[in-house]
Structures
1.
Amino acid sequence: MDILLIAGLWLDASAWDDVVPELTALGHRPVPITLPGQGDGAASATLDDQLAAVLAAVDASPGKPLVVGHSAAATLAWLAADARPGNVAGVAMIGGFPAADGRAYADFFAVEDGVMPFPGWAPFEGADSADLDAATRDRIAAHAVPVPEAVARGVVRLTDERRLGVPVVLVCPEFTPAEAQKWIAAGESPDLARVADLRYVDLDSGHWPMASRPRELARVLAEAAGS
């Protein structure tokens, strides 16, 4: 099965470099997606541009792919399910929840000169980054790509209720499945509360398991594709 890999904020497609060979060895075809504005130098990219890149990968797949979104890109993966509900086998969300219709995509940090730069590690101290050694932190920070303002502040539009029938696997890295269930029950993710087939998978890692636990993450995604 094709497994489309969408990295979160500040990451380009190389974020999946350690996951790709593991998924290939497990019999799948991993497809890391280069997002406009995050790896191609297009600082003027919009959220619609990024979604178009994801949908192009969905449309190019010979079968129904599993669409994987990390962190904020959980929303991009969900937007793909909304736009192509009959052409997506499932969605896996790693450490993130989809933004609700009408909300900003990822307006989390300060925008400077039209982009949202990586804010450094201070906001992610604790469970998010505890499993990253100094060298890995330095590598991620050195390769971080400022996210265009029109992506971060782009408005999410969900239009097709059939997306709720697409199976979702919520991979829980820096938080537990029990915590995720509590947050969803409290209303923090209205769509996930209505998904017909929602499964939780615990993964002992921080927020960036593609860097710290690539083999374990690949196995989780392969199991999600197989199911």
2.
Amino acid sequence: MMEKAESPDAVTYKIVFRGLCNGGGPIQEAVDFTVEMLEKGILPDFPSFGFLAEGLCSLAMGDTLIELVNMVMEKAKFSEMETSMIRGFLKINKFKDALANLSVILDRQKSRRY
């Protein structure tokens, strides 16, 4: 796509992201792609992000997960209270609780947009 001077859109990013997270590919590639998506203002879908998060946890890459969650919260414009709650869970390594709350907040935001 890039060779034909066509920029990928949000749908394209989400499809590639889903493939990277569900396909068992190199986790660093999925992390780098997630960062690229977020820098372009595209939020990953949560089910695929959940797979990536599980992979990061199983590889003891909690710091990377925390960085990605912080980027998602920033791009999704979470309230200060929402951000504080999730960061609190992350700080005490309660990754599943943090991700569960992240999912709920993202779903609530998505329903407000539509």
